[in-house]
Recover the amino acids of this structure.
């Protein structure tokens, strides 16, 4: 949380130094505390930034290897990158570009896009834009549209670092024209570079750019860093500021790690109890437990609160299973009671199946019997998303571990149908005979997806399917239901004359409901005439119920136009019932609807009313 005052905000300089130190620490093993990860991301060109920083510090004193007068012709990048040292590469570029004209810099930019090595290209473009910013910063910003989004962010920082020093007002005005993330990045660069300004002045800039929360975040993180010797205090600073936890997770991790050094895995309970955002909570718990998952699990297992104990343990073993599932499985299998260990075993098996499906299939014997099938289903579904044929080929390898592989085949075919519904439909037809129950089960998964791609083919397969063992609603219903769900009314209507008798009530009702939604109410009523009297009872209940629920006033106004007293009575009944739940019609209108009820429908209404009394 920000505070006011005239204290010089050199804290932002510390942000930059700490952020960069952490980034290159992964390469050189330098240990540093990170104040702000969102301010200077770990993975964006840290090596180049450090090399450039070294160059800027030594360029006036270390010119023995490369003379500042050794100017290189435009586009001759091979003369720059013949040097092994990144610092020397910066020196060579600086020697050439520091006195270049605007046109020369533009020419260098054009040539830089042809540099094959991305690391060299990034170094060159960074120096080009830094120098161009001193001459024409607006043009430098325009060039950001010519590079990848990730590189554009890094180059944008370079531009606004320079611009904020040369022309602060101009940099602020330009930042105000940027959208979303770019404006935030520009502001961060301005705040970092202009650490000569007071905190009030820096916050005023953030407010001007409608990014006060960015300043608050940076200020809060710096205060937390300054108190890192007392992690409890740093933790409190971050949690009590006005910044969403999800925006400062890296700083929270840094503090939690320091706290862990003092109080051990008790910090897991602190995180679990005090972080509200679930995503941030899980991220922090995983970051701390990952150092020693066995030790973390031992701590959570000793907790008294069963709910916290299970939830914390689940988060720990789920992350553990992504990296070493056998070890995680072995650790949880010995825990008591068995109901507790079983839940964790299921978590490990499921996570293992999703992250390393082939490994699970090859080591399925290590998974407890009761979790094998569900783990294999997840594993085969995961493989099928990228290679259905590989998944099919692997089914036989698990025959000895599961009694029936039908559910595995269902998972594969379902995933396959999202990618190639026509291919998998033909595969099912070729590999399973008509009376095979598996054929129907698989077609039930495939035909809805195929209906979206090729309605005619889908309906033809559904229509030609016959079975002596299965009665009831046919596969044709699934095809038409899918067409109705995507609003393809014309295709659905064209298949109605070919629908099997056993499917008619369900199919016609589905189409009739879609017609109601499409404001074809009278046509929907007419459609029902094609059904038998028994089928009509089911059909009109569905249609009138939907009409009354979605367009009660329109149905009331249409009562007089209904062709029969029976339809009028059914419509009135559903209007009355709907109005009891959500009043729309007046008492006079309901009284009129009641007068239209047949004797049977009036009895039916009274029974419903009495049941609800």
């Amino acid at each position: 949380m920000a505070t006011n005052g005239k204290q010089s905000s050199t804290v932002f300089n510390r942000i930059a130094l700490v952020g960069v130190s952490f980034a290159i620490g992964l390469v050189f093993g330098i240990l540093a505390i990170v104040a702000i990860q969102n301010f200077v991301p770990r993975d964006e060109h840290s090596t180049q930034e450090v090399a450039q920083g070294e160059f800027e510090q030594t360029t006036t004193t270390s010119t023995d290897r490369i003379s500042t007068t050794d100017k290189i012709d435009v586009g001759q990048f091979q003369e720059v990158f013949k040097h092994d040292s990144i610092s020397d590469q910066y020196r060579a570029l600086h020697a050439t570009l520091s006195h270049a004209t605007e046109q020369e810099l533009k020419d260098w930019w054009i040539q830089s896009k042809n540099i094959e090595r991305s690391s060299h290209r990034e170094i060159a473009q960074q120096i080009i834009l830094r120098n161009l910013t001193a001459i024409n910063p607006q043009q430098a910003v325009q060039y950001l549209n010519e590079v990848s989004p990730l590189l554009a962010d890094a180059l944008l920082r370079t531009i606004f670092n320079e611009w904020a020093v040369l022309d602060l007002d101009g940099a602020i005005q330009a930042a105000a024209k940027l959208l979303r993330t770019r404006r935030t990045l520009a502001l961060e660069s301005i705040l970092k570079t202009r650490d000569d300004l007071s905190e009030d002045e820096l916050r005023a800039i953030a407010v001007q750019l409608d990014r006060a929360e960015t300043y608050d975040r940076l200020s809060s993180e710096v205060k937390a860093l300054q108190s890192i010797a007392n992690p409890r205090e740093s933790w409190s600073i971050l949690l009590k500021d006005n910044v969403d936890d999800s925006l400062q997770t890296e700083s929270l991790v840094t503090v939690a790690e320091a706290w862990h050094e003092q109080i051990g895995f008790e910090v897991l309970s602190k995180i679990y109890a005090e972080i509200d955002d679930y995503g941030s909570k899980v991220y922090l718990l995983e970051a701390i437990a990952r150092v020693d998952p066995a030790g973390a699990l031992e701590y959570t297992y000793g907790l008294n609160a069963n709910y916290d104990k299970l939830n914390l343990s689940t988060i720990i073993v789920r992350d553990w299973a992504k990296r070493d599932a056998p070890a995680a499985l072995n650790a949880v299998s010995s825990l008591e009671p068995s109901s507790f260990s079983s839940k964790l075993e299921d978590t490990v098996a499921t996570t293992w199946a999703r992250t390393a499906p082939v490994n699970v299939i090859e080591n399925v014997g290590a998974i407890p019997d009761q979790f094998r099938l569900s783990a294999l289903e997840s594993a085969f579904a995961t493989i099928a998303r990228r290679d259905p044929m590989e998944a099919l080929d692997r089914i036989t390898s698990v025959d000895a571990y599961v009694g029936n592989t039908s559910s595995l085949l269902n998972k594969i075919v379902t995933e396959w149908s999202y990618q190639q519904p026509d291919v998998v439909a033909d595969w099912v037809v070729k590999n399973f005979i008509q009376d095979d129950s598996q054929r129907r089960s698989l077609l039930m998964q495939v035909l809805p997806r195929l209906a979206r791609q090729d309605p005619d083919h889908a309906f033809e397969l559904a229509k030609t399917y016959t079975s002596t063992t299965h009665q009831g609603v046919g596969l044709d219903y699934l095809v038409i239901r899918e067409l109705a769900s995507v609003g393809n009314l014309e295709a659905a209507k064209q298949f109605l004359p070919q629908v099997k008798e056993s499917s008619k009530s369900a199919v016609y009702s589905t189409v009739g409901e879609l017609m109601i939604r499409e404001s074809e109410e009278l046509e929907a009523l007419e459609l029902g005439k094609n059904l038998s009297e028994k089928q009509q009872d089911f059909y009109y209940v569905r249609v009138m119920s939907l009409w009354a629920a979605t367009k009660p006033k329109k149905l009331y106004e249409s009562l007089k136009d209904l062709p029969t007293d029976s339809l009028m009575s059914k419509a009135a009944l559903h209007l009355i019932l709907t109005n009891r739940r959500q009043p729309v019609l007046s008492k006079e209108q309901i009284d009129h609807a009641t007068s239209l009820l047949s004797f049977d429908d009036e009895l039916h209404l009274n029974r419903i009313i009495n049941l609800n009394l």
In short: The longest helix spans residues 306-333. Residues 1-69 have pLDDT under 50 and may be disordered.
